[in-house]
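Narrative progress, year one. The postdoctoral researcher (J.K.) led the effort to move from monomer predictions toward full complexes, under supervision of the PI. The following entry was the first complex the group processed end to end, covering 650 residues in total.
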Amino acid sequence: MSQSLQTLAESLLTGKRRALAKAITLVESSRTEDTARAQELLNIILPQTGKARRIGITGVPGVGKSTFIEAFGLMLIEQGLKVAVLAIDPSSERTGGSILGDKTRMLELSRSEAAFIRPSPAGKTLGGVARRTRETMLLCEAAGFDVVLVETVGVGQSETAVAAMVDFFLVLALAGAGDELQGMKRGIMELADAIAINKAEEPYLQAAERAAQQIRNALHFSAPKYDDWQVPVLLCSALTQSGLAEIWTMIQQFASERPERIRGLRRSQSVRWMQETVSDGLRRLVEKNEELRALRKDLEQQVFAEELPPTLAAMRFLEAFERRT
Amino acid sequence: MSQSLQTLAESLLTGKRRALAKAITLVESSRTEDTARAQELLNIILPQTGKARRIGITGVPGVGKSTFIEAFGLMLIEQGLKVAVLAIDPSSERTGGSILGDKTRMLELSRSEAAFIRPSPAGKTLGGVARRTRETMLLCEAAGFDVVLVETVGVGQSETAVAAMVDFFLVLALAGAGDELQGMKRGIMELADAIAINKAEEPYLQAAERAAQQIRNALHFSAPKYDDWQVPVLLCSALTQSGLAEIWTMIQQFASERPERIRGLRRSQSVRWMQETVSDGLRRLVEKNEELRALRKDLEQQVFAEELPPTLAAMRFLEAFERRT
């Protein structure tokens, strides 16, 4: 068993696509026997991960994400880099297919030997989908990819999930007809490390510049992620490919100007990921106990109906929990 | 024991200040024997809570919070209402005294029979301080207060804690010399149900109006708390008392225009409070076990050092936990 995992790992590390696909299938599997094997594989290849630049990209449908990712990806490939494109789309379980990571929308990129495009994994919960994508990212790094783009479509909390696994979170937006900003979901500003106004080509250039200024003013009021990084607002056109090189240069600058920045970020992301997984697991363990689950529901109902003070309800639950453990 | 609690409750419900002070001391106590009695008391008076308007007020030092609260409080009292002023200042443990809830800064208000001012409770953690303030608020309601103002100074996460226990969260700010907004901590915008620019009296009136417009534009990009409430940006002057009546009218409108709004908010606040208290309690129970604590620290260290994949680390911890319970 472990022998075949070792073989798979070695094959993966030489960059073989077949091995990568096999490994991803293992990581995406929900079968209990595969879960342990997937973690064992990740443990084996862990020292060979972390070598790519991890970039999250979001924007509502219509902002031109696919066009942007294709143009951006091809530009990186032209520079000799290998690019993986992953996606988080929690709705894919429901719709039976994701609009993200759709190769037909990035045809030229999908045909390149140096590119690897994977649609969003399915999953019952966002947490499950995020775990699969995150671990697929590690596999891609071990397989030698230099840049991993993680795309999300902005449904629910998927942006937060992507921001928690990447080095840099890029938000795409559009200038609307009246200069107002379009395509940027409210509340996304706080996650952004940069905002790019797409389709900034004539005759929309002036509108794009005005929208950019508007956003720069608004950024003044949002909580900054870093004390030493001011979120740039750039213009670009995926169609004419202008502004893309500047975006890549900016991302590289972000990564290199403070050596500890990315390292510290990744450490805290990993630790937080572990803590969240433990919290989720504890919650599930507690829920497995029929009595405790019924008690919790009953207490919550009493709190909801304002028949029991919240702290007292919590205390009763914790006492019952302690008695059973 | 329960007899004296019943007596205390009855005295509290008639509005006796002595009883209120005694009850608050009980709720603020960290002694184990007092914890259970405090919860019992809250359980007794719970049906008599919920009758006040709960308003959170924040703003950095210098914005004029004390002057505002005094002027606002006196205005409410003039309308025949009883007003309680509480505070959350997590630094009070360290400094040995809070700058909030300081009666010397609200002298006239503190002298009114219809007012009750209480400094921030001490506490080792923000959670502990928040619990005490929240439960003191319930006691004030049972004692017949019509409005409870909960003040916070904007240190760490104290605004989030206050926003989670009030009906309405008011943020105070100032117009700076160059029209830029001052005194509004970045990231606070998302918590606000209204923003009031204080000291909007000549010769600062125009600057205040420009700052207000700036904030209205920025609000466009922040995630709204409600689909059906647009966050107003108002001007006021605690000194000349202008704009205060408008603020009170607005808060009453917020409460009355959708009957379910406050009720639904309070229910979800109570349930979330219970869930957080349970999560904190579970975490503490797990930490009490020496072996598990040591294991968790060790696993986290390995994840931090990038020697172990986060999911695998979490799985190992959960397996160990299950074995011990």
